[in-house]
Design a protein that fits this description.
By secondary structure, the chain is α+β, with helices and mostly antiparallel strands. The protein is 24% helix and 35% strand. The protein has helices at 13-26, 81-87, and strands spanning 3-8, 41-47, 50-59, 65-72. A 4-stranded antiparallel beta sheet has the order 1-2-3-4, with helices on both faces. A hairpin with a 5-residue loop joins strand 3 and strand 4. The two termini are 18 Å apart.
Length: 88
């Protein structure tokens, strides 16, 4: 794997595509995207040019940090990429 990790201050198209694939198409969630996306920091891990894992970090109304929406492309699971998202 040729992994690269990026941080974004908005949900870029690859973040949206990966979350749609994992949460909506695979797991059947609805309303995956919310107002928090526009104020969160998004982590995106690529294997070469393929987005394979993502997650977001934001502060809640009390000022506490919250990590959420962590997902990994199906064929990349069991490779500890979710842990790498959280560490990033």
């Amino acid at each position: 794997m040729d992994l690269r990790i990026y941080l974004y201050n908005k949900p870029v198209s690859d973040v949206k595509a990966l979350r749609t694939e994992v949460f909506i198409e695979e797991q059947g969630f609805e309303n995956e995207f919310d107002e928090i996306d526009n104020r969160a920091t998004h982590v995106l891990i690529y294997d070469g040019n393929i987005p394979v894992a993502t997650g977001r970090l934001f502060t809640d109304e009390k000022g506490d940090y919250v990590i959420g929406r962590v997902c990994v492309k199906k064929e990349y699971r069991e490779k500890k990429l979710g842990k790498r998202v959280i560490m990033a």
